[in-house]
């Protein structure tokens, strides 16, 4: 069985705001996948179960939200495992952007 990709995203938003932002980001996920994708998600408490179908493959994920951290765990099929490091980097970058506290940004 393939090793899952695990990404931890620390934040200072509180669990409810982090959940709201994660839910909003999932709605835009298919825009980042070449050729499009079928994305479905459901919440069980503070865990989002996510399924992404693209290029004839399916990726299952669990997203656990707590007061100070969001933990992403993705299990990639063999086809996508070749791109595991790149996918992990994108998850880290895009997840951090999604959780970024925009009120702390300096205006230019």
Gist?
The chain is an alpha+beta fold and 108 residues long. 30% of the residues lie in helices and 34% in strands.
Folded structure, characterized:
With 108 residues, the chain is α+β, with helices and mostly antiparallel strands. The chain contains three helices and five strands. It has a five-stranded antiparallel sheet with strand order 1-5-4-3-2, with helices on one face. β2 and β3 (47-54) form a beta hairpin. The radius of gyration is 14 Å and the shape is globular. The protein starts with a strand and ends in a 9-residue tail after the last helix. The mean pLDDT is 85.
Task: Determine the N-to-C terminus distance.
Answer: 48 Å
* Largest sheet geometry: 5 strands, antiparallel
Question: What class do helices, strands and sheet pairing give?
Answer: alpha+beta
% residues in beta strands:
25-35%
Using DSSP, what is the number of strands?
Answer: 5
Q: Helix share of residues?
A: 25-40%
Specify the number of helices.
3
User: What is the overall pLDDT average?
Assistant: 85
In angstroms, what is the radius of gyration?
A: 14 Å
- The coarse overall form would be globular
Low-confidence stretches: none
Q: Strand arrangement, largest sheet?
A: 1-5-4-3-2
Give the helices and strands as they follow along the chain.
Answer: EHEEEEHH
Present the secondary structure layout:
Blueprint: E1 5-10, H1 15-26, E2 38-44, E3 47-54, E4 57-65, E5 69-75, H2 78-81, H3 84-99
Antiparallel strand pairs: 1-5, 2-3, 3-4, 4-5
Which characteristics define this entry?
108 residues, alpha+beta, five-stranded antiparallel sheet, 3 helices
